[in-house]
Amino acid sequence: MNFVITGIDRIGKNTFIRRILKGYKEIHLDKPPKDSDPLTWSKSQYLDYFMTLAYQDHVVFNRGHWDELVYAPRYRDYSPNYVRIMEDEYRDNLKNTYFILLYTTDFNIMQDDGKSHDFSRRQEEQEDFIKKFEESKLNKMMIQVNEGNHYAGQNIVRQRFIDSLIKAMEK
């Protein structure tokens, strides 16, 4: 079984993987380096991503192709439609992969570390993630990471994950 953990910057992807999916081989997707052609670099990275998910097991990706769907048109000035084509091409080989979108209902729980694309736009970025996520036909689940005005405790998030996974596996 594989997992892809996605969501806006500072939502808690690293913490989720470290606490809930420890023991999985973690692969972190990055934004294109400044000295590269971003589209060429991204196409290569996402081809590797889909191939890894299709042909390896016990892998967790920190970030997924929804990051490209949200961030490429917003910050890199190119169309990310190629990742939807890849998703369609690999869908039958991804039945053992679960895609998880972490989200919050209170953006004040997050702190700016200066590394986000544009921290002030996190709410509209999350709305884009949710929209793109809902359009997908893959095994997916959404997990809320906050409890009121603070991050939810590890046991709460773990239980939400377990409940969501059971529901997704029943489909």
Can you walk through the features of this model?
Helices cover 46% and strands 17% of the residues. β2, α2 and β3 form a beta-alpha-beta unit. α2 runs parallel beside α4 and α3 crosses α5.
Q: Please tell me what the overall shape is.
A: globular
**What proportion strand?**
15-25%
Overall mean pLDDT? 92
Specify the helix fraction band: 40-55%
Q: Which sheet architecture does the biggest sheet show?
A: 5 strands, parallel
Order of strands in the sheet with most strands: 2-3-1-4-5
For the secondary structure, the number of strands is 7
The parts where pLDDT drops under 50 for at least 5 residues are none
- The helix/strand class is alpha/beta
Distance between the termini: 16 Å
List the quaternary state of the chains. single chain
**What radius of gyration results from the CA coordinates?**
15 Å
Order of helices and strands: EHEHEHHEHEEEH
**What count of helical segments does DSSP give?**
6
Key attributes of the depicted protein:
171 residues, alpha/beta, 5-stranded parallel β-sheet, 7 strands, 46% helix, 17% strand
Architecture blueprint of SSEs:
Blueprint: E1 2-6, H1 13-20, E2 25-28, H2 38-55, E3 59-62, H3 65-76, H4 81-90, E4 97-103, H5 122-135, E5 140-144, E6 146-147, E7 150-151, H6 154-170
Parallel strand pairs: 1-3, 1-4, 2-3, 4-5
Antiparallel strand pairs: 6-7
Helix pairs in contact: 2-4, 3-5
